[in-house]
Amino acid sequence: MIDYKEIRIALHEHPQTAGNEQYAHDLIVAHLQTLHPTKVYTHVAGFGVIAVWQNGDASPFIAFRADTDALSIGHRCGHDGHTTILLRLADIIDEHAPHANILLLWQPAEETGEGARAIIGTGILQQYDIQAFYALHNIPGYPLGTVVLSPHTFAAASTGIIFHLHGRPTHASTPEKGINPGLAVSEIIQRFHALQKCNVEFVQSTLICVRLGTPAFGTSAGDAEIMFTLRAFTNSTMQQLLADARAIAGEVAAKSSLELSVMLQEPFGATENVSACVDEIEKAAAMLSLPVTYCHEPFRWSEDFGEFLRIFPGAMFGIGSGEKHPELHHPDYDFPDDLTVSAAKLFFQLVKSFQFFSPA
What we know:
Order of helices and strands: HHEEEHEHEEEEHEEEHEHEHEH
Strand content: 25-35%
Radius of gyration: 23 Å
Shape: elongated
Helix content: 25-40%
Number of strands: 14
CATH class of the largest domain: Alpha Beta
Largest sheet: 8 strands, mixed
CATH superfamily of the largest domain: Zn peptidases
CATH topology of the largest domain: Aminopeptidase
């Protein structure tokens, strides 16, 4: 009998950050070699794995995704658990052989927001008619096993944005001969803070870092960098927020005779769910007598599963990991193994329901 806790602990003890998920890749491939998928793709976009069960026709597919990478402090987000859930689902599929076309994706590099785009870039998923694409994330603060739903956006769009302001340094005794970006930095910070107050929809601008000049008291600063993280609950709102942010920085830089360059870091799209797919999750949870709750608003953190939802209909949902469980990314966090079987059964219930459901 397979010990899924043992598998999860093995993954937990071999955490590898985005782009380095060799151990998880090899463990997943070795496990799939004991099963009977129609096709297995290995080393997809680095260390991704895709397994396909196909019934010989081109009818629609249902797909599921788990993330495999860890943080620099280890598996403190539960990706080891998510990976194990999908392995358990693969076993159930192999055992029960449902009359459905199924695709399972173990995705690397979620934490950096690069993995989903890289998987899409291979073109493998586009070869299959995916009509429902699902993923989950464990959520501390909710009762263990509670299914957490959002009919629209599940997790926010976000991006880091860096503004570099280039002026002209000069001697500290004659600042009028240079172009010091200090006042421009101050104005940009204040105007960015006001952005989140004047928008009707949720937007957030978080100041991350400011670098201005050098610690040399004989000089007046000539260069500065300002870093923010921007968030919004929809992709369209994020695009408008980015446009507003660029416009503000450009206006302030021009007024102060500063050169401006802009760079984005770790952009994540919003996970915008298809409501019909959310309904199917709720029905599947009811069939298994799992408790369900709806979010009051989307989660403010980001998830790169949203990149798949730009292309394929689907939904992401949460599953409670305990009301008093340490929060995600906390040094004391560890995935609760009691979730593995119930989450895998919920995924499989979606497979069984899919034979009679098409969200498109």
